[in-house]
Specification:
This protein is of the alpha/beta class and about 350 residues long. The protein is about 30% helix and about 20% strand. The chain is built from 12 helices and 13 strands. The N and C termini lie far apart (about 90 Å).
């Protein structure tokens, strides 16, 4: 007797997980970047994001190949090395209805792209910016990147003599309004953080430690699977409740911080450190520096601010995509030009 295939599970848009998948990965087997792609697929599916609303943006590197492996129905632009932030800014300003998802690497972000990264963080542009951080240049034989920890070693035994750039600390100090660090092997934590990132209105910076199995997964590496598992220090247990779901989660009184997101969703953080406040910028930076002194890899939601205006709010951009506006709206009239000229005399 023939069996009837079961109907695939669908989300609130009526889409199946298959609608959020992309091409088959060409990255190394076991690469942490593939795990991040899977979590993006799961989060976008569960949050019911329309794939055609998403603009995937990337630069150059192993990480920047990742957008090909999820959400094939979304818009996609692979930019020049380190220049993804400016392309993302242009896309979002031109069409504020798009959800920008930038995927970058530690080299693409913290070396050649550091200037663009800095200005993106201070503008609070609505974008989810994911750094797939493995501490090396995976496409050019595994040299140290700018996020490699002091004293970590390559497979050849060469030790890194330069202090690292902490992208989370930099993002918090510059003005990003949702900053977190996770580990590609921590499925539950990363999944919850991505769902919260989707609900956030502003700049989200997620630094995800993503071990390079080819060049940086050996003894002596501080970006290896073993090191991450042994040194991960979670700040909290994370639970995310979307606005469209009625889920009750119980925690002991006095141990939970709840942040209401822009769309009414709730980010619940069960504190493992009783006094940690993710809305306190100074405390977040202090705790990051304390973790460095203890050789801890601090993970979780480090900082969140749902009150700051976005770059789009500051510029008062039109709700409609600029390409759809008539010339009478986007082109100044003669009277306006004459007024400008008069002001310059």
């Amino acid at each position: 007797m023939a069996t009837t295939p079961s109907t695939p599970k669908t989300n609130r848009l009526g889409l199946a997980v298959l609608d959020y998948r992309g091409s088959k990965t060409t990255l190394c087997a076991g690469c942490g970047h593939n795990a991040i792609s899977e979590r993006i697929i799961d989060a976008m599916f569960e949050m019911g994001v329309q794939p055609e609303r998403v603009a995937k943006l990337s630069g150059i590197g192993c990480s920047s190949k990742s957008p090909a492996y999820f959400m094939s129905r979304a818009h996609s632009f692979n930019s020049v090395h380190g220049r993804m932030p400016s392309v993302a800014t242009g896309a979002v300003l031109a069409n504020r209805s798009l959800m920008a998802l930038g995927v970058s690497g530690d080299g693409d972000t913290a070396s050649i792209g550091i200037g663009q990264f800095i200005h993106l963080m201070r503008r609070n542009l609505p974008i989810i910016y994911i750094i797939e951080d493995n501490g090396v240049y995976g496409l050019t034989k595994g040299q140290f990147s700018a996020t490699a920890d002091l004293g970590s070693t390559l497979k050849s035994g060469i030790a890194n003599e330069l202090p690292p750039i902490d992208t989370c600390e930099l993002a918090i100090s510059l003005g990003a309004t949702f900053v977190g660090r996770s580990f590609s092997g921590d499925k539950k934590q990363l999944h919850s953080m991505l769902k919260a990132a989707i609900a956030h209105k502003g700049t989200v910076l997620l630094d995800v430690i993503s071990p390079c199995v080819t060049f940086n997964d050996h003894e002596g590496s501080t970006k290896s699977y073993k090191y991450a598992i042994d040194h991960e220090e979670p700040l909290q247990e994370i639970n995310f409740i979307p606005a469209f779901e009625n889920i009750s989660v119980e925690y002991d009184a006095g141990t939970t911080v709840e942040v209401t997101m822009h769309d009414g969703s709730r980010l619940r953080l069960r504190k493992l450190e009783e006094d940690y406040d993710p809305t306190n910028k100074i405390q977040a930076i202090t705790r990051l520096n304390e973790a460095k002194e203890k050789d801890e890899m601090l993970t979780g939601v480090l900082y969140v601010n749902t009150q700051a205006p976005t770059f789009l709010d500051m510029l008062n951009t039109a709700d409609e995509p600029l390409a759809t506006l008539p010339a009478s709206v986007v082109r100044p009239g003669r009277e306006v030009l004459e007024q400008v000229m008069e002001e310059l005399r």
